[in-house]
Automatic annotation (TrEMBL):
Name of the molecule in the record: Histidine phosphatase superfamily (Branch 1)
Organism (species): Propionibacterium acidifaciens F0233
UniProt-listed InterPro entries: His_Pase_superF_clade-1, His_PPase_superfam, PGM_Phosphatase
Binding site for substrate: 12-19, 62
Coiled coil location: none
């Protein structure tokens, strides 16, 4: 377990065209759109003010493009970790929830935090995402013990990572989903992890 003072800043990538159209992206490599690039540039000074010692990113271009905005301010290299990619949504990639047949009348995500929920017959379960992202976050925290690391990733990956580190006592679905380019801060405390900030944004 990481010692006191260790912080993980989980930064969701900026907007893409698929986000604007409410389409599942999963591992499809959709780049940032113009708004997403502007979001990354606006958020980067706020992340730099946290004094990061490292930037670790999903290898998908929308995450890397977001990370580069912070790297340009801090001079830090961007490390890539394939375990930080978004949930594999399989056959749902490119579809809206309505097209995939999982839309809900109230507009909320139909999958919640049910560990057994599978994102399409060919995709991952929530539990599988939590296991891989949680393992990555714990290793990143150990490498940067007592410091701050910025982890640039995706919404389902963030939710799964928070659940993995904080346990069932923290229910991400009780909070609003963090918007594009928002960040969530986890701190190591009392032998575990707690959420210090949820879904902050530059705007």
């Amino acid at each position: 377990m990481s010692g006191p003072g260790t912080r993980l800043v989980l930064w969701r990538h900026g907007r893409t065209g698929f986000n604007a159209q409410h389409r599942f992206q999963g591992r499809r490599d959709v780049p940032l759109d113009e708004i997403g690039l502007a979001q990354a540039r606006a958020a980067a000074p706020h992340l730099a003010a946290l004094g990061p010692a490292a930037i670790i990113s999903s290898p998908l271009s929308r995450a890397l493009g977001t990370a580069e905005a912070l790297a340009g301010l801090t001079g830090l290299p961007v490390e890539r970790d394939g375990r930080l990619v978004e949930v594999d949504v399989g056959d749902w990639a490119g579809l809206t929830p309505a097209e995939a047949g999982v839309a809900r009348a109230d507009g909320r995500a139909p999958w919640g935090e049910d560990d057994d929920f599978r994102f399409s017959p060919s995709g991952e379960t929530n539990a599988e995402v939590s296991e891989r992202v949680g393992r990555a976050l714990r290793e990143i925290a150990e490498r940067h013990r007592g410091r701050t690391a910025v982890v640039v990733t995706h919404w389902v990956a963030i939710r799964a990572g928070v659940q993995a580190l904080c346990g069932p006592g923290f229910r991400a679905d009780e909070h609003s989903a963090p918007g594009n380019c928002s960040w969530t801060v986890l701190v190591s405390a009392d032998g575990g992890w707690r959420v210090d900030l949820w879904g902050a944004s530059a705007g």
